[in-house]
């Protein structure tokens, strides 16, 4: 054995010694193996168990189908075709450049000098290149030309692709249990094996499929979450026996060589991508003499390029001292030494484990989105693990999670219930703790409510569970078997093999968990309760190979319960106290029957109704007269119980606080839909009832076009007695209530009070939105009554709706009595403004102008008051690049610094906002060539957030949601909850870029709309005449910024449009720059003359793009920290000085330029003087758009269109800003109006009454509501109402008025039969009444007559007695009678008994007496 070979052998042994501490010795003989036969390795290919080469490398070389990099292209790199897109660091690449210098690059690498410099800190980009690259060992190297005959050297590569990419069935002829690696297929050409890939380095046969499957096994063993990845292609590059660039023969003979490998894998959709780095031997630290590292130090890194960011392979002190340590250590020590794994598709995330000492190292956690109900497991990549130690996952502000060591790289942690919604910082370390090298690992987990959990259990169409009767006897149940592992696996296996199918062999139980919020007598409080009431079925988790990717599908028998955990009495009584529940699929426990309330980790479903259990093995149901198998009987029984439960809820809800007063006073619905769209700070599209987001699965508001809900808990204030203004100087506080507003096709509010007269049949699509006692998104701390997101809403609001309106008959109006919709009577519109395109502003107080100047500006600043928090919004404006620059000229006629040539138009490329006590949120446009998958980056608390599976995410005091209709999250909404201020960010007008064949990616500019709630005193019409007075009287803050640049000056442009005089006018440009630009953010030299007037009003001087809050600084080591701080259109210093320096183009200059360019374009003069011709050509090239005549014709008098079209030289941008401006100004006019509302008509709605027309508006001023009856009934009462103004003239102040409906009697309906009956009855009664009246008249007359007769008789009797007495008196005095004087009244006649004679009353005597009398009773009777 020669001395050189002996030294190399000893060096290899020394490299292997430090690995012993990381590898489990008991399994090292079985783990440290290559793919393929153990004895088939050769010295050249590097396979086998040869200690000298190939311990951790995949087969390479000609025998494996590799090609060698052309020797003439070793240094500059050989570019190869990848035949599909591979994602890396946010970009998509279908090519790569392979260099002997240890990198896979995607751009030209500057190799001047001894060191290859890349990354933000080491390059002067864009003056020099900063190429994107995967660099396993970056330093200047060479392929030795003078090797001894026993050694070979070179750079080898091949592309492995799955057969299914070429229309073949993948794996159809593979033996997946095969342990050997077959020989390569040189019996056929590449074009025959891989159609469409003429290159011979492409492999797509059965061996390629097997290789990809083996790489997946490697990833599953070392990367948390890699089980969700399916590799479809891989690029394998091997640097074999490379030497330092200036090494000599003696260095090579002494073994100072390097052999390493990079395997880059992706799936067919180019969404996920992983890199595996294998270091077999590293014989030098730098490109210097005799292992010296004074210059040209080797690096192992991933560089995003163009200052996107850089991630080192091993950020430890040991690597810093000597990079050769990479071959000694490992990120997956349970597998082999010198192997490291990374996820690289968007932002590079290290996987496997690390020996990082001190500082901060980002953990990889899967899944990092976890159901807040907890009892789930997550896999963690952090510190390299020791089986003998106990590790814990510490959760911010919550209890710890116990972890089990699966492998040396992966720990599985069992999370408790974490009642929270948002991000929690987690720390991973041994339970013993104490050492500095054990505290570096930091990560985060996002906890979500069960209703929004993207990983929830799939139980089919959730809305089928809320139907009576159920549409099917069985329901689907779908899950991925690899989500469950045997809970006892860690007890009987010393080292877990993640690819072992027996690990996933487990019995699963499907449990029903009921939910309610009830009184706990122990703690004397009402609290949520989750109770396991039964197990529906048991399933076997399928662990065969095909179920690695395939979901397991089962059926749920709804009328069969396997095991009840309630007694018969509880099922007859307590079961109905649980209005709803959810399902959980979890592994069975041996002692499950002893303690059924404790379940293992599992998957939780969406909330479901439990009415299917009321008739399933229910003793109460079986004792009734209904048949247990009769569907109609089941339906009627559910109706009966629902009716009882509806009444119970009605009584229970009526005993609680009347929350409607808080709802309507503080969160009245917008009167029209355009106001709801504009009011971003207070309302958001309903997550299930919005056509704008293309999700209209809601069943509680069928018939509405769009629904909106309050974007935060209803904020309220101290009310006092309600008669005085005692809440002016008190802080607002959140409640647990929520508002929901639904709008019809006309954009008008739908009203619950009209539902009974509009919804004439159950199928009529009219279900208005209703307020909620429990806000659907919950209330912090998310663990009390009304506070659990989703579940509290179902218990208090949604499920009562189904009980009263869907299950029971004729009880929906009862529900709406408790949940009346808003009438918008207390609604005040917000102040709404937007910046679009090249700095076109329509401010929140309706100023209109175009402002261009690069820098970071305070968009909105509101100081803190007693009632409102401090609000800071900043925007970043950059000079837009000239898109006419031809990148193909790079290296021939153009330098690197000339690729980005700025125009004199600035666009918004980023916005950042925060308020008191909230997280800081950045929304940024991504850099060029990085906008393929994501067009924007959303960074919250220095962590990049993704919205692929969850489009609504809530953080500390802030809510972010994304409209994902268009690909790449181009439309983002951010709401500051307490401040009630929201922004809408659209990247490139949210255009569907996929339909534009001439654009490979979007344009890279942001439109930002800002909505400010009315409590800040900003009038949308710009009237500031009394603003100073109102600020002092009501303690209102001063709202200022670029979106309100002149808070103390009255706006005169309320009804005016944008004119050419408003384009970069110096009357306001310098004011905006001096007041609102953050110092140090403008171009070089532009801050010299600024006197910083903004500090006089306390404007923030902090650049929130480049700084971090104290609690977020621990995440600054994450790669996304670099993404938010730097500009996306960084230019060379030469374009910031001299002739290239920014100067604003005014409206007059733009208009004159367009006219000149159009005249030049339409001029027929060709033969100009040489100098004139050259000047004309130069002017047209530098100053004119390509088609100035089209600019003038297409834009007309639209100033934003003229400016953007001419400055950007892009028709699509000009037309889009024109449409955006016209749409916004129109919508803003409608949204900022004050609509007068009378509310709904507060009358009862009996049977057979209908509204005409059914869907017409009936709540705003001028609306008319008419009520009619069906043809079988007649309308009664006042049936026509009008909403109008009413002035109270009894008061002294005649300016006080209100809007109300006209007074009237309750309308009601009477059936025609009853009406006819009553008519005939009325006629008969009338006739009888007339008869009775006549009879009564006759009787009255008769009675009067009789009375008179009686009186006459009495008088005659009296007169007779008088005459008799006088006669007797006459007889006694000589027969003479006293005459009756005419004046003597009859009643004064005296009675004399002496003169009384009986014959006076004898008729003959009387007649004779009367006949002789001349005057009878005082009347002259004689003739």
Explain this structure to me?
The chain has 26 helices and 59 strands. With 1423 residues, it is α+β, with helices and mostly antiparallel strands. Strands 1, 6, 7, 8, 9, 10, 11, 14 and 15 form a nine-stranded mixed sheet that branches. Strands 16, 17, 18, 19, 20, 21, 22, 23 and 24 form a nine-stranded mixed sheet that branches. A hairpin with an 8-residue loop joins β41 (855-862) and β42. It is globular, with a radius of gyration of 45 Å. Residues 1-53, 170-188 and 1372-1423 have low confidence and may be disordered.
- Given helix and strand content, the structural type is alpha+beta
* Overall pLDDT: 83
Q: Level of helix content?
A: 10-25%
SS summary, helix count: 26
Shape assignment:
globular
Give start-end ranges of low-pLDDT stretches: 1-53, 170-188, 1372-1423
Please give the domain count.
7
Give the percentage of residues in beta strands: 15-25%
Termini separation (Å)?
187 Å
Task: Tell me the number of strands.
Answer: 59
| Structural Rg | 45 Å
